[in-house]
Amino acid sequence: MPEARNRLFPARLPVLLVLALLPCLLSNSCASSRLARNAYAARGLSPSAEVNYQFLVYQDLLRQGRKEDAAQTLAGLAAAHPSPDLSVELANLYWGQNEREKATETLEQARTAFPGSRQVNFYLANAYQMRRLNDQAIKVLESFLASQPKDYAAVQELASLEIDAGRNKEAGELLGRIPEGERDATVLYLMAKAAAGSGRAKDAMRHYRAAVAADAGLMPAWAELAALLEAEGDFKGAQDAYQRMLSLGEESPEVRAKLVRLAIRQKNPAKALALLKEGPTGKSQYLDAMSALVEAGQPKQARQVYEMLRAADPSSPDLPFYDAVLTYEGEKNPKAALAILAKVPADNPNYDKSLSFRVQIASETGNMAAAAAVVREARERFPDRREFVALEAAVKDKAGDIAGAVKTLEEAVKTWPDDLDILYRYGVGLEKLKRRDEAKAVMERIVAKDGSHPDALNYLGYSLAEEGRDLERALSMIEKALEKEPDNPFFLDSLAWTLYKLKRTDAAFAAIEKAIAQKVKDAIIWEHYGDIAVAAGRPEEARKAYRSALELGSETPAAVKKKLEAL
Questions:
Q1: pLDDT per residue as tens digits for the range 139-160
Q2: Helix, strand or coil, per DSSP, at residue 112
Q3: Rg (CA), the chain
Q4: Largest CB tally within 10 Å, which of 96, 189, 192, 284?
């Protein structure tokens, strides 16, 4: 909670009152609020002087660390002399003592007493927002604006809350009520955010430009304008915006890293390297540049960045790993990468990482004997590390020993019964062995422990859909999985297949199209696409789908060919 800034108390106290308080202040102790009220009321203090005195008593109690007494004194003062300032001060005190509900209740009572107080309404909305109760925060300001429709500061605050809640259209309409002459840089910035959130990129860019024209130092507007320009493919415009930020003094490694990536995207690695040399660059920026250069197919320049990193921190124990990643991913030399990792000494604090990486490289290149040997060493050195158990199972699985992998995971489940990752791997292994009832039981066990586990939910939902039973439960599970991973093509396929079984063909077709849009290469998904397209009366799409399923190695080619011939 922010502190109350404007109080109704005069800056200077009457001389006689100050003299009367000196013994109390010098002794660092005062009588209770009630005793002080009686003593000084008898001397004929005015209400204003009494308020000032009680507030000083409250502050002195705070200085002594007597927070409960301070709260009691301030609460008594606020009850005897109600005002928005005292209510806000009391709410701040409660908030500081982590009594958030009490602080909110205090502000609610103040709003009832002073409904037209902007200060109270703003603080109350802020309290709800910080408690993640956005709907209540929004209602507070909506109620205030109903009686104060031209309070543009309140309009701005409400719009900000709407944007945070994802209600960008409503925020844009709200901000449109502010006359153009009243729109400062912050209002224009909020209008840009609302437009961007509503998918109106051109309007957003126009508002961002207006915001920085009104206040060139508004760095969030520059940053979001640059990001939007980059997303729209205007790399030059984005580069200019980030350069402008640097020229205005925003010398942050993150801005420079953005410029480095833009230079790489514009096929100008020399510019990227120059930017890294010019300004403050940390390890994360070097690694980001290396990654971007590898992705862009420029391993030589990535190697130059690695040398910069090594020069900056020559004793880093992480260097062999960065070298190995660059050698393997960028220079496509797995043998050399394995040699680098094999030289990592056992006393390196990241020796376990070197073992994991060696297993990964050997496995991905098909050298399963080498992978198994490294796994054995890892299990011997780190017998209590469950990740190496999972690696052992993965190596056995890839080598074709699925039963051995399942046995390893079965033992691991006994040791770590609450490890959901191991449980899920175990369930998948059981599925591969066609022990589906056991696999389902494992997945149900996972969901019982974590009702939002996306992979287990998808497995169970798809299984039900395949069996054509309990389809509403299947749909609910898959939709819950998609809440976590909305673009997962396999989850989208499960959704489409369940909707197809429910005979909701249009919705099924929309879902399968979203799955296919992820450019997934899975024969089953393409076959599902064909079946749903047939049901939707789209024979051309069905033909394309079935052909794709065959090209991707369908496990049931005869059945797919029969469907294709039937069109």
A1: 999 999 999 999 999 999 999 9
A2: helix
A3: 33
A4: 192
